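TICKET: design request
STATUS: open
ATTACHED STRUCTURE:
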């Protein structure tokens, strides 16, 4: 009995001593702060709307887009896999916590004995309860629990980031489909203009005012635009099928999508770089993986130390089930066990070295993802200004090209200019319209990418 009391006191002293050191979370915070220093402000000067939309989806003011993203969240296979990983990780974390609790096993058995030369026999029934509890003196078991919980938190952050990414991909693919439909409309309008020009050219040719070269040139342009229209229609169907896969539908390119891009929503406030690290789910996941690695290292170090356990058994045996709990038939036992590693060929030391390497890898991965996040925000902030300037320039190109084309048409009808000049100006106008449409779609993509890179509210 004295031995057991001494063992309890020793365990309590060691437990208190082990808890006095810095917690793993404190060490993780220190490691993260030392690993990378976030700048005070972004390089690209941005004045995002401080009262801008918190929910990026609603900011596009497109009910169908909201409906499609909701469908994707319910049916997308990749998201379901991420959800399963998260649920499994939390169950594993819960399972790891059972190592800190006592275990109890109940056994019930019976025997029958007798002699071959007699008809008599007798039976014996035995019941026993065995309880064991490993005392986590060095924190090995708690480190395992913390590692499992941090892993579950990382899986949860991965699931949230998968939701963000899915919503962004659905929205960008949706806009790509709309752009393809509008580009096809531009090509069809161009085709109608060329057909009209062809009729004028044919009439002039019949009257001897145009050459065979003009006829051939016009027909060549007609076929070139028809080929471009075929390509655009194919791209549109590809984009619709890609959207349907994201939605969890069969990719048959039958989803009906509108013909109008939504208005560009206001830019969100970019905040400061350090907020991005605290807000982005993929960065949170990387930080949680550092916590996993730190606790795994603690676990490997503690595995080199002795393990202490308490065991107890309580049982009885009788030839009658009614008498099995009779005090005279009951026996109990209480014991304390110590298991100290003596020789394992260096396995535990190697485990510590491996865990230390994985800890450094987790920190390096965090730095990599943090730098990637900073780069994405800076690029998207920069692209916001670039695309705005491109849109302004292309709008002016379209306006002036439209004026030049109307004048060229009149001059061609009056015979003051050749067909080649008219077609060149027409092509310049079509290219300007097409490029302006593409920039408008790219601006919508930029807004989505900016929200995703900032890791804001979704």
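STATUS: resolved
RESOLUTION: sequence designed for all positions
ATTACHED SEQUENCE:
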């Amino acid at each position: 009995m004295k031995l057991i009391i001494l063992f309890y006191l020793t365990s309590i002293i060691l437990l208190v001593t082990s808890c006095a050191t810095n917690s793993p979370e404190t060490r993780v915070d220190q490691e993260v702060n030392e690993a990378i220093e976030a700048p005070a402000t972004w390089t690209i000067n941005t004045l995002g709307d401080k009262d801008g939309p918190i929910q990026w989806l609603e900011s596009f003011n497109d009910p169908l887009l909201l409906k499609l993203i909701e469908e994707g969240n319910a049916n997308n296979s990749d998201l379901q896999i991420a959800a399963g990983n998260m649920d499994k990780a939390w169950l594993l974390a819960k399972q790891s916590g059972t190592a800190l609790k006592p275990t109890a096993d109940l056994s019930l058995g019976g025997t029958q004995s007798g002699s071959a030369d007699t008809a008599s026999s007798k039976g014996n029934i035995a019941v026993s309860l065995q309880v064991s509890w490993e005392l986590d003196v060095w924190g090995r078991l708690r480190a395992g629990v913390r590692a499992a919980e941090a892993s579950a938190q990382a899986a949860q952050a991965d699931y949230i980031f998968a939701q963000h990414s899915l919503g962004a991909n659905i929205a960008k693919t949706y806009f790509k489909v709309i752009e393809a439909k509008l580009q096809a409309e531009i090509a069809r309008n161009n085709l109608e203009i060329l057909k009209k020009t062809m009729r004028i050219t044919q009439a002039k040719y019949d009257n001897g005012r145009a050459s065979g070269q003009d006829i051939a040139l016009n027909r060549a342009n007609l076929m070139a635009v028809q080929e471009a229209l075929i390509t655009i229609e194919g791209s549109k169907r590809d984009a619709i099928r890609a959207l349907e896969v994201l939605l969890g539908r069969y990719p048959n390119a039958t989803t009906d999508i509108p013909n109008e891009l939504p208005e560009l929503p206001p830019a969100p406030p970019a905040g400061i770089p350090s907020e991005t690290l605290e807000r982005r789910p993929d960065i949170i996941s990387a930080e949680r993986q550092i916590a996993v690695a730190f606790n795994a290292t603690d676990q490997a170090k503690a595995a080199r130390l002795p393990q202490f356990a308490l065991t107890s058994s309580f049982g009885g045996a009788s030839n009658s089930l009614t008498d099995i709990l009779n005090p005279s038939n009951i026996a109990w036992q209480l014991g304390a066990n110590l298991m100290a590693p003596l020789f394992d060929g260096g396995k535990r030391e190697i485990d510590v070295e491996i865990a230390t390497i994985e800890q450094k890898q987790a920190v390096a991965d965090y730095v990599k993802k943090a730098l990637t996040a900073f780069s994405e925000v800076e690029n998207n902030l920069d692209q916001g200004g670039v695309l705005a300037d491109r849109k302004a320039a292309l709008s002016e190109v379209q306006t002036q090209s439209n004026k030049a084309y109307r004048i060229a048409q009149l001059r061609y009808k009056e015979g003051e200019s050749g067909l080649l000049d008219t077609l060149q100006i027409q092509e310049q106008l079509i290219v300007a319209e097409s490029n302006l449409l593409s920039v408008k779609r790219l601006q919508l993509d930029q807004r989505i990418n900016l929200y995703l890179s900032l890791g804001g509210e979704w």
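CLOSING REMARK: The radius of gyration is 37 Å. Residues 1-9, 12-20 have pLDDT under 50 and may be disordered.
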